Amino acid sequence: MALDMQAALENYLLMRLWPVTEAHITIALLHDQYTRAEPARAHAGTPP
């Protein structure tokens, strides 16, 4: 029973923190794309 409560608490915390984490990752990726030295490599799927 204690493990179920622990898992539920961890899931709740993850659900609360994920939107903030996702936003930070998105900002970091966009910054990386716009500051690359090689613009052709800035976006995935663009041929070299």
Verbal overview:
The protein is mainly alpha-helical and 48 residues long. The chain has a domain at 2-30. 71% of the residues lie in helices and 0% in strands. It is built from one helix and no strands. The longest helix is centred in the middle third of the chain and has 34 residues, at 2-35. It starts with a helix and ends in a 13-residue tail after the last helix.
Ordered list of secondary-structure elements with their pairings:
Elements: H1 2-35
Residue-averaged pLDDT:
80
Overall 3D shape: rod-shaped
Total strands: 0
- End-to-end C-alpha gap: 55 Å
Q: Give the fraction of residues assigned to helices.
A: over 70%
Q: In DSSP terms, counting alpha (H) and pi (I) runs of 4 or more, how many helices?
A: 1
Unreliable sequence segments: none
Biggest sheet descriptor: none
Oligomeric form: single chain
SSE order, one letter for each helix or strand: H
Q: What Rg do the Cα atoms give? A: 18 Å
| Beta fraction | under 5%
Structural class: mainly alpha
